[in-house]
Amino acid sequence: MKSLGASLSAENARARILRMTGRLVEARAAYRAAAQAHMDEPAVVHSLAGAAEILRDMNRYEEALAEYTELTETYPLEGTIWCGRASVLMDLGRFDEAISTFRISETHGSALIPKNGTATAYKRRGEFTKALKLFNEVAKEFPNDPVALCGRAEIYRDQGNFEAALDDYRRARDRSPFNPTPIIGVVETLKELRRFYDFCAQRRARYRIRTFGCRSEGFSNDRRAPFS
């Protein structure tokens, strides 16, 4: 069983690399092949979720929702599956359903991703007070979580509180130095503050990140849901 588990892990890793390099069709095929070859292993749920998540990357949201819905019936106690379904609902603008689904996820695992997801849903619906409350809770409980820091920073920017946004983006950047999301946030906020010397210096840092092709999972430059 150990060799089978290692093989599944390796196949999932290959699929993730294909996804990160933009080869989405191949990545989805790799996840599905891994799932078919190891359907009797508990960890196969990660292959199935990966295949569904790539449909989100392709903007095929209705198909992704159908796959995630089927997976919640097969794996009702798997929190990551409920988070995936909630994230697709948020992509579709069905925020009430997304929030209730994130709450289900919170009962089946860590509260980190569901709370960030719920906060993001509130933010996208324009309920900034509720979103800030949740992001604050996450930042207090998980002070090194860059998703909550970036989510809170986006709200501060929308409210015109650029100094607070800059502080959160910088904290997120320091905790996740190779992730482009907080770096882009710092650059854009410095521009809004008209601090052009710092802006130019940070743009050079951002260019270095892009040049070396560094990318972290779990983030998206399009302010989508935090699940990935």
From TrEMBL:
TPR repeats: 146-179
Superkingdom: Bacteria
Name of the protein this chain belongs to: Blr1262 protein
InterPro entries on file: TPR-like_helical_dom_sf, TPR_rpt, Ycf3
Organism encoding this protein: Bradyrhizobium diazoefficiens (strain JCM 10833 / BCRC 13528 / IAM 13628 / NBRC 14792 / USDA 110)
Keywords from the UniProt entry: Repeat, TPR repeat
Gene3D superfamilies on file: Tetratricopeptide repeat domain
